[in-house]
Amino acid sequence: MSEHTISVCMARKAAAAILVAIEIYNRPSNQYRIETFSLLVINAWEVLLKAKIVKDNGNEIQSIHHHKQNDKSVEYENDALTNEPRTISLNKAIKTVNPPKEIIDNIKGIQDIRNHVAHTGSIPRGFHQEITQYMTKYGTASVFNFIRACKDWFNEDIELPYIMPVGHLGKLEMTDKLSTSQRDLIQNLQKLSKDSSSSNSEYFVAITIKTMIVRGLNGEASFGYTKDPNAPRVQVSDDEFFERYPASYKELAEACREAIPGFKQNQTFHSHMKKIKDDPDCAYARKLNPRSSRSLETTYYNLKIALTKLKECYNQKN
Q1: Is pTM beyond 0.70 here?
Q2: Where are the domains of the chain?
């Protein structure tokens, strides 16, 4: 989006709105964060969808103006307060753009949450905590969808922290005292998410974030290696690497000799080791020259995990 066209400016404003929404959601002391987040995310999507319509119509801003058509001409309607041309509604923008169903259902879910939490200012504690869970799932998916839509529609990489922190860690107090409308909302959110669970689309209705709470830090939970080209890249120091994979092949074999009764470094062991080498939790092949594809490699092992899995291999055989 190098050119400052109308649609580009609108898309950038939409991205700014959703970034503010994330910042507000990330403030645990903000007592109105669910309400504000839902309002801003819906606004961001409305502006982005309208930007897409403007782009598809040669950057003519009139393409999103609300008008009534008579036999002779097109008459635009002005806002009663600002006297500026009224723009089309969010629902009209969705119908015009016709984005993937996952985007539509995701927006609908957040709209439903907004309608329940942002109009009364009075939400039961148990219901508020339950809604927080659904907002985390729907909100994270919405920001993820927003980033991908910007890329698909405008070929623009929007830098947004789409993985939001879990806002309901700690004791979760559910309540059975929900009104009929509140129960209907929960059931609808569950249905929208369930209906898309088997979808192969690149977009999502909801995303579940699983968090593990552990005591202290240890090598096993600090980081892991993956061959996934889309995984986030991190810089790992030599000390961190060898804390994770401290053992050589010889040291692992010696550990097996002490821990596995009747152990022999034979063909059976070599067969098991092929599986260990292919498991990134157990082993990592490190190149002597990382910049050369033809460089020699040395494999290092996570002694604890590799030894545990080798024991399992021998026990299965027995």
Answers
A1: no
A2: 6-195, 226-317
